[in-house]
Write a structure and sequence with these properties.
CATH topology of the largest domain: Beta-Lactamase
CATH superfamily of the largest domain: GAF domain
Helix content: 40-55%
Largest sheet: 5 strands, antiparallel
CATH architecture of the largest domain: 2-Layer Sandwich
Strand content: 15-25%
Number of strands: 17
Length: 500
Amino acid sequence: MSEKQVYQQKLLLEITQYFAESSALEATIPRVLKDLCSAVEAGSARIVLNDGDGFYYGMEHELLPVADKVVLEHVMRYGQIPLRGADLLPETMMFKQMTALPLVVKNQPLGILWLGFEKSGQIDETDQGFIAILAGKAALAIANAQAYEALHASRRRLEAILTSIEDAVVMIDGDRRIQVFNPAAETLFSTSAHDALGKPIDSVVQHSALLQLMDEKDLKGARVSVEVGAKTFQPLLSEVMDDDNVSMGRVLILADVSHLRRLNENMTLFLQTVSHDLRSPLTAAKGFVDMLAMVGELNEKQTRMQDKILTSITDMTNLVEKVLDAGRLDPEMGAYELRRDLCDPAKVVQKVVSTMTPSAQKKAITLKGDVDADVPLMNVDEMMLERALWNLVENAIKYTPEKGEVTVKAAVKNNTLELSVQDNGLGIPEDKIGAIFDKGSRVRREEHKAIRGSGLGLFIVRNVARQHGGEATVHSEEGKGSVFSIAIPISGENVIGASS
């Protein structure tokens, strides 16, 4: 090995150490370029990055920025420039030869390294190999520094967001130890981040509902609210995944919805008050309309008008009942207690089908009931179960075209009573199904313009099911129809003989 090769190998070791000791490119790269110029007797060594930034050592010239741009564009278009004449550069720069290499890491071009020589024939193959190795090390150092800066900038942005956000944010790792605890969480749980980080969440968050939520397997379960102190929070729990889609833990965000709950309570109270006040005049109006025929015989036109008035009164009465039911069953209000008693689901199906048949006949819809023989008697709130099923059938009739079919079924599946309503109506778009049971939710489409609704029926259905420890679900396909189901476990308090 020649003396030059020994010297260059020594330089490569020193340069490797430079990069290992510091990620600050402003300090290491100029030093590396100085050593490079010394090793190959170059007049100038320059690193030019794609974003226009760069690092330089050697001769100063006002046209060097112009040369940087020309060489960068040439290398990006045609690749490496082997040792050649300096015809690419402005003549006034006095370089006789030049060479340039792309700086590439994982097939991603970062920029170039180029050198200018004031004399011809100064470098050989050994020098070119040395330059290539050094270019590779510089490229890797630049890539690492850029990645570090991007990570650091991302961390700063995240810290700024976590600091400024009003929601409490708590993240735990796979061992349930706290990794993120923002200022809002510090205030909420009266614990500093310094004391919380690294600790098991159970030792910091003394709230059974939140701890239970952190262990939930189904992160897409029912949205709930939790009380912490005097405030109400809407929790959002998400799995945190790494680049390989492996779980790193969970993050809990607690949004303060106390003011929204107060608004909801005030609105519900207002609607309940108005609805109660409407009951009496509606009952009186229906009574007087029914007695019109007693005053004198009605002609055909008057009879039609009487029917329309009665229909409107019935619709208004149903709306009043829905508003009252929605208020009673709203889990945020928590005011309703089930009136459990002996109930025959078969009779509930029969009654709802019988009650809704006239509405179905107006659209020539076939409405039928289908009850399996093994459906048992239950210990449930019959009135609420009937109203839930009535709401499902009413919706099915509304959204099923004329001469369609609606089937009400009762069956036992996996020790669960399943009441379902199947139609061959318009169906529900897939992106709307997730919120279909929310209060006030309605599917807005052109075909529905003439269909009136309160957006409360399915909200009532879901809460009747949940009050009985069950759930409401829907399977739907646009253009083919829907199947809405109420599943109630045949266990616990729902079983005859169980204590309420």
